[in-house]
Write a structure and sequence with these properties.
heterodimer, A: alpha/beta, Annexin V, domain 1, TIM Barrel, 9-stranded parallel sheet, two-stranded antiparallel ribbon, 15 strands, globular, B: Rossmann fold, 6-stranded mixed sheet, 8 helices, 6 strands
Amino acid sequence: MPIRKQSVAGTTYAFDGLVEVMARATPLRSGDQLAGCAAETDAERAAAAWVLADLPLTTFLDEQVVPAEDDEVTRLILDRHDAEAFAAVSHLTVGDLRDHLLEVATTPDAAATYAALAPGLTPEMVAAVSKIMRNQDLVLVAGAAEVRAGFRTTIGLPGRIATRLQPNHPTDDAAGIAAATLDGLLMGCGDAVIGINPATDSPRTTSDLLRLLDDMRQRYEIPMQSCVLSHVTTTVDLIEQGAPVDLVFQSIAGTEGANRGFGVTVPMLLEANEAGRSLGRGTVGDNVFYLETGQGSALSADAHLGTGGKPVDQQTLETRAYGLARALEPLLINTVVGFIGPEYLYDGKQIIRAGLEDHFCGKLLGLPMGVDVCYTNHAEADSDDMDVLLTLLGVAGAAFVIAVPGADDVMLGYQSLSFHDALYVRQALGLRPAPEFEAWLAGLGMADADGRVLAVDLAASPLLGIASGAGS
Amino acid sequence: MSASEPAATRDPWAALRRTTQARIGLGRAGNSLPTRRVLEFATAHAAARDAVHEPLDVDRVAAEVADLGLGEPVLLTSRAETRGDYLRRPDWGRRPGSLEPLEGVEKGADVALVLADGLSSRAVTDHGAALLGALAEALEGRSLARPVVATQARVALGDHVGEALGVRFVLVVIGERPGLSVADSLGVYLTMHPRPGRADSERNCISNVHPPDGLSYAAAARVAAALVVGADELGRSGVDLKDTSGSELTA
């Protein structure tokens, strides 16, 4: 791309290449400032947005932000690009694409139109358009899109929002994990997955925790999937040893280098997907991957440089991770948006913006997108900011959110949503749990005919044995 | 307080709470958290935020360190001038604003002790001088440089200090990121042959020092001293060096 110039308020700004235009046009965030690629001033950012809006979408097929010869994620994205699907928008600029997406959102068959378009869009195109969309645009388009996936529950149905029940414990104590799981189930959570971050990556611990959850599932006939978020190689080994693995987990990022930092490659992930599917444990679908991502992961691994050795902005790299995720057809994928800290997303405003961008980009690319609505104690954010983001994501049709007891993850040391927050968003927006899970709740008298989770007395609950049995 | 806790005997969650620190069985007001639980959470978050943002009382801490008899502490600041800069720019927190205060300080000691505010000034205020004292005691027999108190500082700032003082080891005692339940925890980072550019994999860390609930000063100091001995034998600190001090990681 030649150097492009744009004047704003009497000053002319020049942008050298696609990487620079993308970075400078990105709404302000601390991670891009740390990487040295953010616009210096608001006027420069506005100028870059004009340049970006005028770029033909074909630019993204001709010019790469991360060179294909250096990066297997780029090669995967290009290999899997569907020219036929792209034909519907190939004549548009980035600005035209925004208008088109908003037009489609008003039509009755919007979801089908987006689904047909998805394989024709590259992550970079989607990242680009998101940068010139306001928060309300990100909500409207994502809200009109639909992406479904299934294992033992169905994820992504309109009018529903699922939850990952995250019963982490600092020492992986079975009784403590069971107590937190019981708490979440009584609050109608766990329909996306019951997923434990283990304190150690030992195969033995992972195996023990998998059996704990699988025994619980079978004893109480819960339509659910479990996951212990160990490294993908640990999980694949356990599959070979016959452990009850439902979902295969891995953190992924948008560059080959950042994925190497996670200890994974594209072929390794594709093989793990086949290994998980080979077990045939799903009942309503065979999506077996659970993926986590987050803006800033490439920068923190010092693997964020692109064409010309220039730093690529963190939101574009995040969206490239979704390009990789698409190839794995996951059941669940979520951005852990506020976990990484204020050097990447400084405050509530930046976290909210990033959460909406990630959700929009993932969903438009065809992923069952969830969000870990979360923050750390050194970020300028609090529960009120999380309420705002959760509400917006509920309106935007997020597939699922993460929930922990009282919003306090005592193992990872950050604040996510609480089980109560999940009930809040369902009540405020009339959203229901995943249908299979809702039917199970209703069968136990824990939900009413409208899917509302009823308050139950612990002592009288048929699930009480979950906690009392785990310690033995 | 009007929103009082139900008697434990009437709360069937009481037994389950003994299995986890997680905030389970909080009850419901409609679908939402009861008032008491909302206030508890907000209070814990407030304490954690204050621990991050309250500036370190350098005069007070420096006086306490001076009382240890290890020499008058040298005061340093990082390149990050404000807390906002510190949080946004970890690279600035790793570099000293100026090393001038170290000029004229005697060089060539075995170990330098650096007390840094990190992400919790409260941890340094509550435990900093006492932990430094315990470390000096556990390192008896080794020569110590004059102690350094550094503000807006991250661990790698110790690499610059260590190089400037020509020491073989630097021990950075630093405030850890506050959690909701613990806002006053210190970490200790050991680096052998410190110099700018050392990777995190070349350090050893002792975390969670905050008596009475976390690791005690004496236990942390014993482990640190054992790591120094081990690094001396191995010729380097970092991931290849294991803590061989036994089962002493209890409070």
